[in-house]
Amino acid sequence: MFRLPRYAAFIAALVPAFFCIAPSHAADATLLDALTRLAPQANPRVIGLALKATDCATASGLPASDRLAVIDYSRPSTEPRLWVFDLTRRKLLFHELVAHGRNSGDNMATKFSNQPDSLESSLGLFRTLDTYDGHNGYSLRMNGLEPGVNDRALDRALVIHGAGYVDPKTASRHGRIGRSWGCPAVRSAVAHRLIDTLKGGQYVFSYYPDRQWLGGSRYLKCSAPQTQMAKAP
Q1: Domain boundaries in the chain?
Q2: Residues 126-171: pLDDT tens digits?
Q3: What is the pTM of this model?
Q4: Beta bridge pairs of residue 95
Q5: E strands along the chain, which residues?
Q6: Was domain 24-228 assigned CATH 2.40.440.10?
Q7: Alpha-carbon distance 188 to 134, whole Å?
Q8: Sheet with strand 159-163: strands edge to edge
Q9: CB-side neighbour CA atoms (13 Å) of 225
Q10: What is the distance between the alpha carbons of residues 78 and 169, in angstroms, rounded to a whole number?
């Protein structure tokens, strides 16, 4: 039997170690692990549900996205409860205050609707569309992907926009920030940059521990036939 010289065997064993001295942390970590480290104030379960929903969307035929916005409406409006992640570079881009609809609640949002003129926020998975300049300035349209939950978002003009009432000083004076007509409004100072980060086919996931939605959302179960999933317009 042919045998390598001792020094050759030693070199053969050394070469793989030499080229693998410092594997990146990103390669070892799951995306969920990475995002929860970036956003320690966020509920890991909520981030996990957001990733599950977007994975289900792409499995159904919708394009993947580079960025993801997560809104946790179970938190008070006085706390930053919007996170925007760069999924490719694994970076936290924004951690911001965000308004809920005036009929969803006072400081805490507890009611959500898909109905026009309800002035309530909507839950579930959205995909962003184009921008425009409207009554609230620079704004970002969103397509609601969940039938019966948020699929009237376009008709209701639920958009991301800046608002002067989304402000820490307002929160200090009134015990809550101002409320919208259902839109996830953000601080005016960051609105343009945040909208440009999310425009053009990124995902927005709005969460609240609503049992009916959590139990029925096809994007959280991914068990419905793909042909029944919402498609990009």
Answers
A1: 24-228
A2: 999 999 999 999 999 999 999 999 999 999 999 999 999 999 999 9
A3: 0.84
A4: 83
A5: 67-72, 82-86, 91-96, 124-134, 137-144, 159-163, 186-187, 203-207
A6: yes
A7: 14
A8: 91-96, 82-86, 67-72, 203-207, 124-134, 137-144, 159-163, 186-187
A9: 2
A10: 10
